[in-house]
Amino acid sequence: MIKAIQLIIFLAVAACGGSGEGTAVSNSTTVSDGKCLEENINFPSKLLTKQMVLKLVDTEGKELEVNGSDNNKRTEWNSRDFNWDTGRKGNFQGMELPLMNSISLYSMEIVKADNLIENFNSAYKILTDEERKKLMEQLREGLKAKLDAGEITEEQYNMSQGFTGVFAKLNYQKIDEKVGDIAIWDATRTKLNPVSMGALIVQYGKVRFKLNVDVGGKNDEASKALAIKVAQSIIANCN
What we know:
- This protein has a 7-stranded antiparallel beta sheet with strand order 1-2-3-7-6-5-4.
- The protein is about 40% helix and about 25% strand.
- It has 8 helices and 7 strands; from the N terminus they run H-H-H-H-E-E-E-H-H-H-E-E-E-E-H.
- It starts with a helix and ends with a helix.
- The protein is of the alpha+beta class.
- The longest helix has 20 residues, at about 130-150.
C-alpha cells in the first residue's frame, strides 16, 4: 500500500512538470567498472566488516554489536548494521530513550539505466526553498487533479496527503569529497530521527547503496564525515 501511495505522489509531481526542478548533484559523466560491488551485492558482510569499522571509529572500549542479513531475495533487503553504546539519550514522543551510535549499510541495488549519472541526478535533486514550495504546490494540484479525474480514490487521496510532508522536508546536500562516481548526503529530518543522523547515498558503477550513520553531536557533520570515510573504505577494499 505504501509503495502504491508513493507511486501516486511521484506521478502527480511528474504530471505537473515537477521532476525538472532542482540543481544536479554533479555534472560528472565518469562511471567506474564497479564489478566487485556487483559480485558481492548479496553479501554486505563481506563489503563492510567489523575490522573495517574498528579502524574508523573509537568505541571507547564498548562492544561493537553487529547485525544484518545476507543473500535475501531482493538485494535491497541485505544489510550490515553496527551499533555501540555511548550513553547518549534522546527524546522520542515525550520519552527519554538511549541512543546508540550506528552505521548501517543497506538498500544495495543494481541500477538499470542507460545513463547512471543522469539517473542519480534526477532522483536526488538539491532544492532551494522556492523550488521546494513550488514542488509542494504542484504536488497538491496534481493529487487533486487525479482525484477529480477518478484516477485515485478518496482514501488514496487522503493517505497521499500524509506522505506529502516527506517531500516538504527533502534536504539533499552536496558533498565536496570524492565518493564513488557520485554521492549525496541526505539530511532529511523526520520526527523520529535525531539531528545527528543522516544518510550517504552513493553510486559506484552500476551499484547504488546507502549508509545510515549517527554518531551524535549538535548536527550531522560528524556523522557525514564518518559516512564518507566508510563509503570510501568499502570501495577501496573491494578493488
